[in-house]
Amino acid sequence: MAAPFFVLWDHSQLWGLLLCRGLTALGVPFATVSCAAVADGVLSRRAKPPALLVPGGFARRKFAALGPQGVAAIRNYVTDGGTYLGICGGAGLALSHADGLGLCPWVRRPFGERLDHLVSGHVRLTVDRDSPLVPPLEGPHLAAPVWWPAGFVPSPDQAAPRDVSVLAAYAGAEADLRLADIHLGAMSEAVLAACQERFGLRLTPAFLTGGACVVTGSFGRGRYVLSHAHLETPDSPAANAWLAHLLGHFAGNGTTFPTPVPAWEPAKEPILFADPSLEAARRNMDAVLAAGLGLRLLLRRNTWLLGWRPGMPGFSLSNLAVMLAGAGAMPPTAAAREYWRVVGPDFADRFATFARRMEVFFPAQRLEITLSLVDRPAGADPQLAAERRELFGNGPGGGGLCGELIDRLDGLLARLLPAVRAEEECLRRPGGIIPPGPPER
């Protein structure tokens, strides 16, 4: 293959790490690329990637980081025959809205529907078996994981239907599907029906029956594939096979990537980046998670992702823990060493402060939940709410002190992975690919 795939790294965090790990497991050549490098014109250089892969994460932040020049660069790349593969947040970035690239004329279903249901786990998908973008299937459905998904729908102000094809539609829940911390997959259909009939509880969103999950279409001479299903999820064989099929199709010339993405246990991976600041942070992270798990505010969803009670900052903590583990499991490069020499000590100090505050925050949160049920109306105490904002910011976006720690790890991971840098660095090597460099000994 003439050139590697590009992975748009910015504001993807856990999901960017998962995609890069999946690509490595599949044997797919790739390099990460920053929004700044895209705005600087890297997509129009000689080494044009077979596809731009945009992981999940925070679409609005990606859009802001790209800026007008970056947005125009991606649109021009696809117009000129390039391929865009967006997963979850990366799919949302490609849609037609104020913070979207406008590659696809469709939009997402309202965000409130996802907040109401907090659905995650594997779902059944009905796929377009006639599309060359879909691999052969043995059974009637394909099982694929989703993490707080929505559905794709035509824009309400779209004057006329445009060329968008549905590659996969939701066809119900698989056994591990959860609604927040409620294991829907363990409940019988009869119990679910009785809950809905007797109490009016709607436990699964309407889009899980027939709503569009994966779509494709053309833009100029290029194309896009947008997926709410996380095809890169570890140990999800059918989804991984679809990802490998798509990447082989994009690469052309009969390229195949047959290896599945194996299960992942970050806590058991060997430490290759041995650093005192990272080690201290790992100890503090273990203490924070132990406190949340012990108070039943967090739970172990799987080996790399936490579950949590509604309202808990579980994703932010899961994101932080996995990024920390992922950084330690990569061999350090010269660029990473230099960055961490400057950033690492302050990171360790901030992490220690974060852990001390969480020692009090978790018990206070547990008491608040209990007292709201027996002593006063439900609702967060103003002081506790303020503490949460300082620690985690507003909403699910991972701000506050936790967000600052994640941002520093994001910078470290960007220097540990193979990357395409900004203009002046891209000119150093033919094609602009800067490998991560040899591990330091």
Description:
There is one protein chain. The protein is α/β, with parallel strands linked by helices. The chain contains 13 helices and 15 strands. Strands 1, 2, 3, 4, 6, 7, 9, 10, 11, 12 and 15 form an eleven-stranded mixed beta sheet that branches. Strands 5-8 form a two-stranded antiparallel sheet. Helix 9 runs parallel beside helix 12 and helix 10 runs antiparallel to helix 11 (382-392).
Q: Main attributes?
A:
441 residues; eleven-stranded mixed beta sheet; two-stranded antiparallel sheet; 13 helices; globular; disordered C terminus
Explain briefly what this protein structure is.
The protein is α/β, with parallel strands linked by helices. The protein is 42% helix and 17% strand.
Radius of gyration from CA coordinates: 22 Å
Q: Figure out the total of helices.
A: 13
**Mean pLDDT value:** 88
Number of strands: 15
Order of helices and strands: EHEHEHEHEHEEEEEHEEHHEEHHHHEH
Main pleated sheet = 11 strands, mixed
Helical residues, percent: 40-55%
Q: Strand pairing plus helix content: what structural class? A: alpha/beta
In whole angstroms, the N-to-C terminal distance is 31 Å
Beta-strand percentage?
Answer: 15-25%
Low-confidence segments, given as residue ranges, are 422-441
Question: Per the principal axes of the C-alpha atoms, what is the gross shape?
Answer: globular
